[in-house]
Amino acid sequence: MCVTVRVTEPGPRPIVEEQITCKAYNGHIGWDSRIISPGRPGPRIDVDALKAEAASGTSWVAAKAVLPVLQS
Q1: Nearest alpha-carbon partner for 11 in 33, 38, 34, 35
Q2: Distance, C-alpha 52 to centroid of its chain
Q3: Are 50 and 2 in contact (CB under 8 A)?
Q4: 34 Cβ partners below 8 Å, 6+ apart?
Q5: At residue 65, does pLDDT exceed 90?
Q6: pLDDT digits over 20-62, tens only?
Q7: Residues 45, 15: contact at Cβ < 8 Å?
Q8: How far apart are alpha carbons 7 and 61 in whole angstroms?
Q9: In the 3-class helix/strand/coil scheme, how is the chain assigned residue by residue?
Q10: Is the dihedral of CA 38, 43, 49, 50 positive or negative?
Q11: Would the pLDDT of 69 be above 80?
């Protein structure tokens, strides 16, 4: 499960901090943030990488790798 939080600093040119946290069932977390300035969105956060980081201590990675074989 992933949750996105955006915090806006008020002002004439508001700056936004975007934080994404992904949590696996065993409590492991993948987290990243970025600063979004007016006219400069910055690099996108790779949510798939955060999910993989959170799930690294689970069987999800192995199950995802085997799924295509099981579906064929």
Answers
A1: 38
A2: 9
A3: yes
A4: 17, 18, 42, 43, 44, 45
A5: no
A6: 999 999 999 999 999 998 888 788 999 999 999 999 889 888 8
A7: no
A8: 32
A9: CEEEEEEEECCCCCEEEEEEEEECCCCCEEEEEEEEECCECCCCCCHHHHHHHHHHHCCHHHHHHHHHHHHC
A10: negative
A11: yes
Rounded to the nearest 10°, the torsion over CA 50, 53, 55, 56 is 170
In sequence order, which residues have a C-beta less than 8 Å from that of residue 21 and are 6 or more positions away?
2, 3, 5, 29, 30, 31, 50
Q: Token digits for 27?
A: 């409590």
